[in-house]
Write a structure and sequence with these properties.
The protein is α+β, with helices and mostly antiparallel strands. The protein has four helices and 24 strands. β11 and β12 form a beta hairpin.
């Protein structure tokens, strides 16, 4: 029985060690006890079996923990090979997360472009649609099954619909269809425009079904055409606008008579300079609804009115203001408020507990539309100043002008 227990123990110890059955430290230790009493041999066997059981329990717990982590956080687990050993590394991987975020952003851009007609349109290059074309066979767009968006070409060059009345029997039809309105700007997005057909000296004898138009980057337009109200009507392509397809991004295509077109450089928004700084040359007591800072030191842009004490925003943009005071009465608090469009938005507060003077300065940055009014009011307390000092002050500047 002892011999059988020894054989079983040797096999278990070899399996637990992760190697094939053979000679190991446990086997050698037990063989050295062959000539010991049976009780001593059994005690050694039971002790070694208990040790193996503990090791097996520990390994099982570790395996369960690793399995649970792997199931809960599959994205945080990577496997790498180090010196022939597979190592599991846990934690967040910033590089992988960044790549996933970039892929998601690219996918969102792709999805936006899928629904943008500027990227998905049908080329409509038919020479007979030109405003200078007359043909014997008259075409009718009512027979066309319009689907989606179209971009107009003439012999491979981009152009657009006419915005003027086209003579009859042009554009390969009896009544040419032209856009009864101006083309949109790019910031207008997709707009709806009416279409008119010229017939019998009436430029809008036929009021066809309205169409949708959008301006795209690169100074070209896409159209969502619909079936006209009757025959023979067809959409025109204005050959006079061929020059518009050659305009650069910083240029716009303009025309006074809608016949002669040219590329004109867009006017840049000139940055208007607005700066002012003013002070009050005296003391202020109690409540003052609107402080009239009469000593104006800087007034670039002339947006501040010294007679009313009001700053009026001349342009839309982001402004920054500051206002200050010096309080000098013990046990009294002094509050000055910045008022924007009749809303009290920022306070300059001081409270003196002992005989001394305390100065306070507050700043405030905000977005203002053109015509917004800003001034300062003293809600309570006492502010000190004289003709030579600049302690009660109010000023501001335009930081960014916006369209």
């Amino acid at each position: 029985m002892v011999v059988f227990a020894l054989a079983v123990l040797v096999t278990l110890s070899s399996y637990a060690a992760g190697c094939s059955p053979g000679t190991n430290s446990t086997e050698l230790q037990l063989r050295r006890m062959e000539h010991q009493p049976v009780t001593a041999q059994l005690a050694a066997v039971f002790q070694e079996m208990e040790s193996l059981r503990c090791e097996q329990t520990t390994l099982q717990q570790q395996q369960n923990a690793l399995t649970q982590i792997h199931q809960m956080s599959p994205r945080w687990t990577t496997e790498r090979e180090v010196a022939g050993t597979h190592v599991l590394t846990y934690g967040s991987h910033d590089h992988d997360d960044d790549e996933e975020e970039e892929e998601e952003e690219d996918e969102e851009k792709s999805l936006r472009r899928r629904g943008d007609p500027c990227f998905h349109y049908t080329v409509l290059d038919q020479a007979w649609r030109a405003t200078n074309t007359t043909s014997k066979f008259k075409m009718c767009d009512r027979n066309v099954k319009w689907k989606g968006w179209y971009r107009m070409y003439y012999k491979g060059q981009s152009l657009q619909m006419p915005e003027r009345c086209v003579p009859v029997n042009k554009c390969g039809t009896h009544s040419p269809l032209w856009l009864a309105g101006t083309h949109p700007r790019r910031r207008d997005g997709i707009v709806t425009r009416n279409v008119c057909g010229h017939w019998k000296k009436r430029c809008c004898a036929f009021r066809s079904t309205p169409i949708k138009v959008k301006k795209c980057r690169g100074n070209y337009y896409v159209y969502q055409f619909t079936q006209p109200s009757s025959c023979y009507l067809a959409y025109c392509a204005d050959v006079n606008t061929l020059v518009c397809g050659r305009c650069r991004r910083n240029q716009s295509c303009v025309s006074r008579d809608k016949i002669n077109w040219r590329c004109k450089r867009k006017k840049r928004l000139s940055s208007k300079k607005i700066h002012f700084f003013a002070s009050f040359p005296g003391n202020l007591m109690g409540k003052v609804n609107r402080i009239k800072y009469s000593k104006v030191l800087v007034n670039v842009g002339r947006a501040y009115n010294r007679r009313t004490g009001v700053f009026k925003a001349p342009v839309k943009g982001i402004y920054q203001f500051f206002f200050s005071t010096v309080a000098g009465r013990r046990g009294q608090k002094t509050d000055l408020w910045l008022v924007v469009n009749n809303y009290w938005v920022a306070v300059s507060h001081s409270h003196i507990s002992r005989p001394s003077t305390v100065s306070s300065l507050s700043t405030y940055m905000t977005f203002l539309r053109r015509g917004a009014i800003v001034y300062v009011t003293q809600n309570c307390g006492q502010s000190w100043a004289n003709a030579a000092s600049t302690t009660i002050t109010f000023g501001g500047s335009l930081l960014v002008q916006m369209r």
